[in-house]
Amino acid sequence: MNLRGALKFLLITTLGLPVLQTLLVWVAGLLTSIGDETTANVVNQIGRGAGILWLVSITALVVVLAVRSLDDPPPAV
């Protein structure tokens, strides 16, 4: 995978995972309100995993952007 492809993937995950987390929090609240505590806990754990993946993707995105900026030639004066 080249740097441009990695950058696209990390940008999509960085923007998409918070949406997924919001959806999972809503589903967990819905499950709790109907009395299904066990499934709500599972959904909360999946949301926690999505949060960890989000932090990893942000860190990787910063690293990829730094590497890409080092690969670009300096601007002409």
Description:
The longest helix is centred in the C-terminal third of the chain and has 35 residues, at 37-71. The protein has two helices and no strands. The model has no long low-confidence stretch (mean pLDDT 92). The two termini are 33 Å apart. It has helices spanning 3-33, 37-71. The protein is 86% helix and 0% strand. It has one domain (3-68). With 77 residues, it is an all-alpha fold. The chain crosses the membrane at residues 9-31, 51-70. Keywords: Membrane, Transmembrane, Transmembrane helix.
Features:
77 residues, mainly alpha, membrane, transmembrane helix, transmembrane
The class by helix and strand makeup works out as mainly alpha
- Give the helices and strands as they follow along the chain: HH
Radius of gyration: 18 Å
Q: In percent terms, what proportion of residues is strand?
A: under 5%
Number of strands: 0
- The domain count comes to 1
- Share of helical residues: over 70%
What number is the mean pLDDT?
A: 92
Number of helical segments with 4 or more residues: 2
- Outline the low-pLDDT stretches: none
What is the CA-CA span between the terminal residues? 33 Å
Largest sheet: none
General form = rod-shaped
Would you kindly provide a brief summary of this structure?
The protein is mostly helical. Helix content is 86%, strand content 0%.
Would you spell out the secondary-structure blueprint of this structure?
Layout: H1 3-33, H2 37-71
Helix pairs in contact: 1-2
